[in-house]
């Protein structure tokens, strides 16, 4: 009887600890990275018409970016499949890395033109705020992983 009581206490303790850790992991904190589209729409205070246009543009942009990302992943898989080969085919490796670079260029261009399209639905005041948001994001992105900026 005493052995069972100790096991029940241990079981309850483990269940409580499991619940605690699940809450810490999946609690009500916002997801990392967030949704940039929602952030932009909130910051610029789009009206209903602007929001509809923005959502359509954002969805199309997201789909295009996902498609290019899938293509990049496939190319990188091809590239690293070459590691298992006994001899390196330099021409093939160079061709794959060139294609990856072209896909990254496509992503950058699509993002640039997506931002230009978003600007078109903004009022003058919103456009100024949008430009500031984009510049701030670029500055933060450039510092990521490099520590604090020097003053």
Please give a structural write-up.
This protein is an all-alpha fold. It has a domain at 57-121. Helices cover 79% and strands 0% of the residues. Helix 3 runs antiparallel to helix 4 (90-120). The longest helix is centred in the middle third of the chain and has 34 residues, at 48-81.
Average pLDDT works out at 84
Largest sheet: none
* Helix coverage percent: over 70%
Low-pLDDT segments, ≥5 res: 146-151
Helix tally equals: 5
Amino- and carboxy-terminal Cα gap = 69 Å
- The strand count comes to 0
The proportion of residues in beta strands is under 5%
- State the shape: flat
Keywords:
151 residues; disordered C terminus; mainly alpha; flat
Describe the structure concisely.
The protein has helices at residues 2-26, 36-44, 48-81, 90-120, 124-143. With 151 residues, the chain is an all-alpha fold.
Give the helix/strand layout:
Blueprint: H1 2-26, H2 36-44, H3 48-81, H4 90-120, H5 124-143
């Amino acid at each position: 009887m005493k052995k069972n009581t100790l096991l029940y206490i241990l079981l309850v303790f483990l269940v409580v600890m499991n619940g605690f850790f699940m809450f810490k992991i999946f609690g009500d904190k916002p997801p990392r990275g967030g949704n940039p589209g929602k952030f932009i729409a909130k910051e610029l205070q789009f009206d209903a018409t602007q929001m509809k246009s923005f959502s359509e543009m954002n969805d199309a942009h997201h789909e295009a970016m996902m498609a290019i990302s899938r293509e990049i992943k496939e190319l990188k898989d091809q590239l690293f499949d070459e590691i298992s080969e006994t001899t390196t085919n330099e021409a093939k490796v160079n061709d794959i890395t060139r294609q990856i670079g072209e896909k990254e260029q496509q992503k950058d261009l699509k993002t640039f033109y997506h931002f230009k399209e978003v600007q078109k639905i903004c009022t003058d005041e919103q456009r100024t705020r949008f430009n500031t948001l984009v510049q701030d994001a670029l500055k933060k992105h450039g510092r990521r992983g490099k520590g604090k900026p020097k003053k």
